[in-house]
Amino acid sequence: MPLQEPIQARPFPRELLHALREGGYDVSALVPAPESDPETLSSPDTPEAGPQQASHLLCAVYQATGDPAIGLWLGSRMQPDLLGLAGMPAMAGPSLGTALRRIARYQKLMMGDRIELRRQGEEAWVCIRPSEPEAPDTRPRIDMELCSLLAFGRQFTRKPLHPLRVSLRIGQPDWHLRYTEAFDCPVRFGEPEDAIVFGRRDLALRLVARAHSRPAAPAATGDARHAAASLDDVRTALHQLAGERALSLAAVARHLDISERTLQRRLMAAGTGFRALCEDVRRELAGRYLTEGNMSLGEIAFRLGFDDANSFFRAFRRWTGMTPGDYRRSAAHPCP
Q1: Which end of the chain is flanked by fewer CB atoms within 10 Å, N or C?
Q2: 83 and 129 belong to one structural domain
Q3: Which GO terms describe its molecular function (predicted)?
């Protein structure tokens, strides 16, 4: 099915393009530029597209198809492992609740629709808060976001994961049965907010993907454990875990499959400490992110585990004596 509305070329979210292509849509009409080929966009080296680009594409698809439930269709078919920047930290979480909180933090930093998690008794609510006034693509966008979060949970818990219900702000439409089919649970219309309501126990479900995120390391003892925790190994682990908000010695030790005491001894032998090494790795990564590509401060803050862009801004100025913007400009135009 071709989509006949060409759009000005820009970095579109690869997960949307993948879902469209898998559904038989000709995405070349949407992204005619050669560098926007869907296969290329599936590469992990492809720059991330922000919420504005996702909204732009979704609005074009909505207008081209005329399908008011296109958001449900897209959300249920999106590949959760193509969640891009938010995907890797989310998939590495120990539980569904942790993964959803990490996705929510990414959304907050990217200034897109907000995801809010709250508990009410034995219920766990995952709410979507639109970031802007109502627009033609608001409803399909929220439908897609809710469906994709549920798809993520089902894929990475390896459980059927039936929500208790779904709450939607819209009145009951003529296509209301498509909502029931997509979420496979009761759907209530005309509610105060858009949300999936899980049982509290659902958020405690472990993510199966976490066990496959890296090859299982054999048990190590004595000299083997010492060898496994060389300073280079520790730095590599910190690069991989830099996006964790509460990055700790214990987390790195678990990642390396050694004891905390062994890790502390190796750091002391190398003449450094855990916090100093963390700062060094984050400073190194920050410089790389600022000079390679066009990531926003919010995206960089997320990759480095900061609560927001302002926290990253202050840390970077403390590290280098420069603002991130000045650093980026100096790297782009070095003095002769």
Answers
A1: C
A2: yes
A3: DNA-binding transcription factor activity; transcription cis-regulatory region binding
